Amino acid sequence: MLWFDGALHEGTRHGFDLVDRGLTLGDGIFDTALCLGGRIAFHEAHLARLAASADILGFAIDIEAVGDAMGTVAAAIGDGSVRTTVTRGSGPRGLAPPELARPVWWITAAPRRPGSGFAPVSLHASGIRRNETSPGSGLKTLGYLDAILAAREARARGFDEALFLNTKGHLACAGTGNLFAILDGRLVTPPLSDGVLPGIVRARVLGLAKSLGIGTAERSLALDDVLAAEAVVMTNSLRGLSTVTAIGTTAFPDAHETVAALSHALRLLIAEECGVPSEVA
């Protein structure tokens, strides 16, 4: 289903301006959120990140209207994913943005895949580097070619996801999520300055760890640091928290006390957000 131009439509096809900058230049952003029981988990955080991302790109969106539409789509889909896409809109030929942006946005939804929540993943370290100097490294922009190519390579080699280092050789992220390593009993994750997206679930997991008395740190990590970790996890809005079973040829244990505690706490938090039983999250 699709929300476009103020209304909910069946299917996913609709008329589109072929000089829209999102289509021709990737000049736009997107957000993907989990909905359960017709409600979006961490709705306000998703809206705040969309608004902040648009501000960085230099245009504004009607965030109240977007939020209302996201809620309508979530109620219609029930359990699934809700993707909001925003472009700067159409403009003259060339790279320079138009003086007056007329943003275009739409929302699509897809049913939740059975077993996708909190599912384990294996990672392949990509040779493609995350550019931590780019403003786009901290945004979910429409230019996702690096992630697409890295995902194709990872799948071809029998892995679920790609792992990215940045140009300095520090850990950045997975292809579709943030990464955490448990080192000496502490939950450690790369800082945003290492080319890391400020993930919605990333922030929640850091908060949950502190509430559970688990030590946390945000610091640069070499790949060797991560390969020597007690456990590694990946987080994103749709998966929640996924145990990393392997990075290349290095395997990690299926069960870890800290990971289990964080997974349980996050399930409870998502369930509370959406008003559903914890076993549904």
Explain what the structure shows.
This protein has 7 helices and 15 strands. With 281 residues, it is of the alpha+beta class. Strands 7, 8, 9, 10, 11, 12, 13, 14 and 15 form a 9-stranded mixed beta sheet that branches. Strands 2-1-6-5-3-4 form a 6-stranded antiparallel beta sheet. The protein is globular. The protein starts with a strand and ends in a 7-residue tail after the last helix.
The SS-based structural class is alpha+beta
For the secondary structure, the number of strands is 15
Report the β-strand fraction as a percent range. Answer: 25-35%
Helix content: 25-40%
Number of helices: 7
Low-pLDDT stretches are none
Which value, in Å, is the CA radius of gyration?
19 Å
Largest sheet: 9 strands, mixed
What is the element string, with H for helices and E for strands?
EEHEEHHEEEHEEEEHEHEEEH
The overall pLDDT, averaged over residues, is 95
Shape: globular
